[in-house]
Amino acid sequence: MTYLNQGELKEAEKLQTHVMAKTKEVHGDEHPKTLTAMGSLALTYGSQGRWKEAEKLETQVMIKTKELLGEDHPETLSAMGNLAMTYLNQGEPKEAEKLQTHVMAKTKEVHGDEHPKTLTAMNNLALTHGSQGRWKEAEKLQTQVMTKTKELLGEDHPEPLKVMGSLALTYSKQGRWKEAEKLQTQVMTKTKELLGEDHPETLTAMNNLAMTYSDQGRWKEAEKLQTQVMTKTKELLGEDHPKTLTVMNNLAMIYLSQ
Questions:
Q1: 3-state DSSP call for residue 50?
Q2: What is the pLDDT of residues 35-79, one digit of tens each?
Q3: For the purposes of burial, counting CB atoms within 10 Å of the CB of 100, is it exposed (0-12), middle (13-18) or buried (19 or more)?
Q4: Per-residue pLDDT tens for 203-219?
Q5: Which helix (H) or strand (E) holds 224?
Q6: Best exposed site among 16, 163, 220, 237 by fewest CB in 10 Å?
Q7: Which residues of the chain have pLDDT under 50?
């Protein structure tokens, strides 16, 4: 996604809506190019926290892709994976898990255990386990994914850093603060180097480390990081974006705890 802040997301949405409409006119509702355009627009809705609109489009894409290419085709599995994450983001982990378990199994069959798409599917299922409080299952999957992703892409690639961040949160949820902090510090430092201080992934890493400081009662360190995150998130996404509101709430809780 080239467009990162809220204003640019709106511009992305405007362009993608136009592309989708024109592609439908030229190719019809069920052409792969139309489905790709629909999927891209759905991802932009998701980036704005508009999950219901994303879900509607992603459901259509999944159904049509299944009809055109079959249930086990990589494009179908990708569509199912996108819909599953939208379910998860709306607090529907059971629906997400059902799709993700299928996606992971079929992706392993098609691509093998160590393919990036298999590892993504495993990590997404781990996130869903975590959302249900199934931390040991999440940790097992995330540890496998982190090890394999590092081997494939190197320690400083953004993908292993994302997985490390997810594993750190799993440690944190189990009260393993020092292990979480160690990973989160690495993730934040490397993400800053790779993507820059204002990138959404960097801000996520900073937020997560701030919360781990908070969990250990280190309020001043938590407040310093979280204030930076809030300022930058407001600039990027606007005051009313769900991520901005979450960060504001996190900072408010830190203030109250002191």
A1: coil
A2: 999 999 999 999 888 999 999 999 999 999 999 999 999 999 999
A3: buried
A4: 999 999 999 999 999 99
A5: helix 219-237
A6: 220
A7: 1-4
Query: What percent of the chain is helix, strand and coil (3-state, nearest 5)?
Result: 85, 0, 15
Length of the chain: 258
Contact 187, 179 (CB under 8 A): no
Q: How many helices (H) and strands (E) does the chain have?
A: 12, 0
pLDDT at 99: 97
Nearest to 211 by CA among 62, 75, 219, 256: 219
* 35 close to 61: Cβ distance less than 8 angstroms: yes
Instruction: Provide the token pair at 57.
Output: 């489009």
Location of structure tokens 């993700």: 100
Q: Taking phi first (over 0 means left), then psi (-120 to 50 degrees means alpha), and beta for anything else, what does residue 176 get?
A: beta
For the whole model, what pTM was predicted?
A: 0.82
